[in-house]
Amino acid sequence: MKYSEISHFSHPQHKLKFEHSEFPFKCDGCKEVGIGSSYKCTVCDFDLHLHCAIPAPTIFHSFYTKCSFQFFSRPPGEKPRFCNACERDVTGFVYHCRDCGFDLHPCCAKLPVVLDDGEIRLYLYRKVSSSCHKCGRRGRSWTYRSPCKKYNLHVACVKDMLVENWQGFMGGKSARKFDTRIPSLKNTVLAQNKRKSKAKKGWEMAGLALQFVVSAVLGDPTTLIAGVIGSMISKA
Ligand SMILES: [Zn+2]
Ligand SMILES: [Zn+2]
Ligand SMILES: [Zn+2]
Ligand SMILES: [Zn+2]
Ligand SMILES: [Zn+2]
Predict the structure, then answer these.
(1) What are the per-10-residue average pLDDT scores of the chain (236 residues)?
(2) What integer pLDDT is reported at residue 196 of this predicted model?
(3) Where are the domains of the chain?
(4) Less packed terminus of the chain by CB within 10 Å, N or C?
(5) Which residues of 84-118 are buried (b: 16+ CB within 10 A; e: fewer)?
(6) Where is the Phorbol-ester/DAG-type domain positioned along the sequence (predicted)?
(7) Distances (CA, A) of 213 to 7, 69, 70, 108, 166
(8) What is the rounded CA–CA span in Å between residue 140 and residue 220?
(9) pLDDT for position 217
């Protein structure tokens, strides 16, 4: 459900307004990057993913049928925690299962099980045995895979790519200071494919697959991001 304005416990001093941005932002809830829809305080440059702005107290996930994940505004306990979906550190909002100690970033917990635009369909798996299009490794994090099983992309690899490309931005806070917009992912994909000549022809498909995964990973698979990232891929 979308509200045009909300009050949030993490930012009680101002209301947060629903916004749509083509610029990446750093979510002040989960501390991960986001794009597209957000709840924002423009006075303080404070942003939250939709999933972080309106969390559920408890969620269940089809990959962990015995788990019940509770929402925490800070990672529980003293130990450093990492997300079971993307393998990145958990430093802010998190869904945590007390029984198993599993953790999921709010956006990772809400990753769509199927990404489908009518032409390309990708399914989310907890683990796949084939190698990832980006890193070439098996296993590792959750993976999006095409029905033909040829294209496999780790959620972790997509996040790594974004973080590498957006390092300058991730260090700072304000998206306004970040003027290169969406970075080029094409080069990353191409570089990878040059090394593996077999996969050369696949890059176009991989590029398309990538844009879906990117927008999903950023917390908003439903927006025009696919278009934005699509144009950046073709212009690069
Ligand atoms: Zn967030
Ligand atoms: Zn504020
Ligand atoms: Zn559990
Ligand atoms: Zn995660
Ligand atoms: Zn990978």
Answers:
(1) 87 95 87 90 95 96 96 95 94 97 95 81 90 87 90 87 65 40 41 45 61 76 49 42
(2) 46
(3) 5-53, 58-109, 114-235
(4) N
(5) bbbbbebebbbbbbeeeebbbbbbbbbbeeebeee
(6) 13-67
(7) 30, 23, 25, 11, 17
(8) 23
(9) 81
Task: For residues 155 and 212, give the distance between their C-alpha atoms in angstroms, rounded to a whole number.
Answer: 11
Residue 64 CA to ligand 3 center (angstroms) comes to 7
- How far is 229 from 224, CA to CA, in rounded Å? 9
Determine the 3-state secondary structure of 176 from DSSP: helix
CATH number at 58-109 = 3.30.60
Ligand 2 centroid to Cα of residue 40, in Å, is 8
- In the reported structure, the alpha carbon of residue 76 is separated from the centroid of ligand 3 by a whole-number distance in angstroms of 14
Q: Which amino acid, 179?
A: D
- Give pLDDT, residue 139: 79
For residue 69, give the ligand nearest its CA.
3
Question: Which token pair is 143?
Answer: 């993976």
Phi–psi pair at 155, nearest 5 degrees: -60, -40
Residue 93: its pLDDT value, please? 98
Point out the ligand nearest to the CA of residue 86.
4
Residue 220, Cβ density class (10 Å: 0-12 exposed, 13-18 middle, ≥19 buried): buried
- By the 8 A CB rule, do 154 and 192 touch? no
d(CA 194, CA 236): 16
Cα–Cα distances in angstroms (integers) from residue 45 to residues 14, 172, 184, 212, in the given order: 11, 12, 26, 27
